[in-house]
Specification:
The chain has one helix and two strands, in the order ββα. The protein is of the alpha+beta class. The protein is globular, with a radius of gyration of 15 Å.
Length: 47
């Protein structure tokens, strides 16, 4: 997961286990998945 990490001083990519290992980050509040629309065809909002 990409994390805007004050602890490191820059954005960092952490595995979920790295969050769980730190008391400060043990509770996951939310996750945002980035969808470029390129994988598995193009994303569309059409009905």
């Amino acid at each position: 997961m990409l994390h805007l990490c004050a602890e490191v001083g820059r954005p960092a990519v952490w595995e979920p286990a790295e969050f769980a290992a730190r008391e400060r980050y043990r509770v996951l509040v939310g996750v945002k998945r980035v969808n470029s629309g390129r994988a598995n065809g193009s994303a569309s909002n059409e009905d």
